[in-house]
């Protein structure tokens, strides 16, 4: 595929991440901070996000195995994870985090367990889509403005 | 130095341009310094990069106690971006201690929830302003312009 076609595909892929609700304006804020002095800023922040996510998801998984459930602790972990999602503009994942916290407040164990699966699923989808987008952008020699 | 925030919400990969477009600019009248106080590494990185791009010399610490210790050791920062919830010492407590020490720096609080009651309580600790985090380019320029004018 020639460079122009690749760049068009990058722009289309990027646009669809917003149109399909995976990302919000905060991701654009990150893109705006990327420049010659910080050429990989967006990927660096997303990598930090993955690392943070792994840690918090693991903590929540362990906490969900305890009986009785400590809803305060679960809410605290998810509050932190939701904050990370806000920082990169991970819109759908953030929405699932909000749902989980509502179940924590209601002390609904079944709701927490079910929603946690949704959180992990949305996170996995986002990760796949972002990795594909970044790979395409690298091939095209940098992401294109949408 | 004049820094303008480009309107990039529909443009994607746009850098913060060093140009005077007449709108929402930050003019650095002197060398400013800032301290980012936040336990979230991602937020510290974002705010540090944003301030550095706007020409502000920036340092980061992960809790309120480290911020207080820095000021107590004689360091000074024109601007403090103070997170509300942190381990060891939270934002409200650190802000109260800094004000009790007579620190007149601009202290801007950041919270992860846009709850008016929470923001008001944090303001009561001695903040100059309070925002939802992470701060945007426009937020930061507004803060720095206010700092310049004070």
From TrEMBL, chain A:
| Gene3D superfamilies, sorted | HPT domain
Gene Ontology biological-process annotations: cytokinin-activated signaling pathway; phosphorelay signal transduction system
Q: Which parts of the sequence belong to the HPt domain?
A: 38-133
* InterPro entries in UniProt: AHP1-5/YPD1, HPT_dom_sf, Sig_transdc_His_kin_Hpt_dom
Tell me the residues on which Phosphohistidine occurs.
Answer: 79
Q: What Pfam families does this protein's entry cite?
A: Hpt
Give the record's keywords alphabetically: Cytokinin signaling pathway, Phosphoprotein, Two-component regulatory system
Instruction: Decide whether keyword Phosphoprotein is in the record.
Output: yes
Superkingdom of this protein's organism = Eukaryota
Keyword Zinc present in the record's keywords: the answer is no
Q: Where in the cell is it found?
A: Cytoplasm, Cytosol; Nucleus
Task: Give the transmembrane ranges.
Answer: none
Its cellular-component GO annotations read: cytosol; nucleus
* Annotated GO MF terms: histidine phosphotransfer kinase activity; protein histidine kinase binding
Functional note:
Functions as a two-component phosphorelay mediators between cytokinin sensor histidine kinases and response regulators (B-type ARRs). Plays an important role in propagating cytokinin signal transduction.
Domain comment from the record reads as follows: Histidine-containing phosphotransfer domain (HPt) contains an active histidine that mediates the phosphotransfer.
State the name under which the record lists this protein: Histidine-containing phosphotransfer protein
Q: Which organism is it from?
A: Liquidambar formosana (Formosan gum)
TrEMBL record, chain B:
Q: Does the keyword Phosphoprotein apply?
A: yes
Positions with biased composition (Low complexity): 1-10
Q: Which residues constitute the signal peptide according to the record? A: none
| Chain positions with 4-aspartylphosphate modification | 83
Q: Report which superkingdom the organism of origin falls in.
A: Eukaryota
Q: Where are the transmembrane segments?
A: none
Task: Identify the InterPro entries for this entry.
Answer: CheY-like_superfamily, Sig_transdc_resp-reg_receiver, ST_Response_Regulator
The answer to keyword Phosphoprotein applying to this record is yes
| UniProt-recorded name of the protein | Response regulatory domain-containing protein
User: Which species does the entry assign this protein to?
Assistant: Liquidambar formosana (Formosan gum)
